[in-house]
Design a protein that fits this description.
Strands 1, 2, 3, 4, 5, 6, 7 and 8 form an eight-stranded antiparallel β-sheet that branches. The chain contains three helices and eight strands. It is an alpha+beta fold and about 130 residues long. It has a single domain, classed as Electron Transport, Fmn-binding Protein, Chain A (Pnp Oxidase, Chain A, Roll), CATH 2.30.110.10. Bound molecules: flavin mononucleotide.
């Protein structure tokens, strides 16, 4: 399995991950659950009205932490906005529960992909494994 697929699978199986952004000198973190590999990129989804979206527009640096079955994943990089309708629709099709709140043609739905990503899988029992994509 490709590194990016492995990271997405971990996020899917964890169900919830925590996304950190930067606001000035203040870290901000919140639970997220969206993840999709599309066109060879790892995407997440949010709403443009949210503070998280505004923070990423000013400073794209972000970090995700997820935990599952005694292993944790730390994924850092930059989250880049993609206004492609196809990418938005692919996200909504993978996660149909989003369709209650979002559509590919509204002014709010936003997908962002990781650029310069470094992902490290860790546990208390095995050596850390780092992948980049
Ligand atoms: C389990 C869980 C998963 C969530 N997944 C997402 C998500 O993928 N995208 C999103 O925009 N909000 C998601 N939310 C809601 C955000 O955590 C919430 O809107 C948060 O306040 C956004 O951060 P902000 O207030 O800094 O903008 C999720 C909430 C929970 C409890």
């Amino acid at each position: 399995m490709e590194a990016i697929e492995k990271v997405c699978k971990f996020l899917d199986e964890a169900g919830t991950y925590y996304l950190a952004t930067v606001e000035g000198d203040q870290p901000r973190v919140r639970p997220f659950g969206t993840a999709l590999v599309y066109g060879g990129k790892l995407y997440i989804q949010t709403g443009k009205v949210k503070s998280v979206s505004k923070q990423l527009a000013r400073n794209p640096k972000a970090e995700i932490c997820a935990f599952k079955d005694g292993k944790w994943l730390r994924l850092s990089g930059e989250l880049i906005n993609d206004d492609s309708r196809d990418a938005k629709q692919a996200m909504l099709d993978k996660m149909p529960e989003l369709k209650a709140m979002y559509s590919a043609d509204d002014d709010n739905t936003q997908v962002l992909y990781f650029k310069n990503a470094t992902a490290t899988f860790s546990s208390f029992t095995e050596a850390p494994e780092t992948v980049t994509f």
